[in-house]
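Let us practice reading a record.
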Amino acid sequence: MALTDTSEAARQRQLDFYAAKSGADKVLLASEMAEQAKQIAMMADVTTYVASAEDTILSKLEWSEDSGSERQFRDVVAVIQIQRASLDLDSLDRWATELGIDDRLRAALDAAN
């Protein structure tokens, strides 16, 4: 049986890896928020990028909208609660409107309070 650390500290250290495939992912790759992504070296000569909190929120909101996944929505609420002070809310609002998920963003912001 695998042991799972479900503590708050473990949740804050969680990393999700997924390939850019959705509309939000593709738009964000070309957006100004892509400049906020953190570049990290994962292995000897392989470089990858870590999405900003804003990128993660938009991608998960789109995924939640498309799939009806409440887990993705809960993840968004948790990211907002943890990162609220540093979020670029104007950019989030602009991109959520562009992607047609502004109602989901507002619901997540309300739920995070």
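A brief commentary: The chain has one domain: 19-112.
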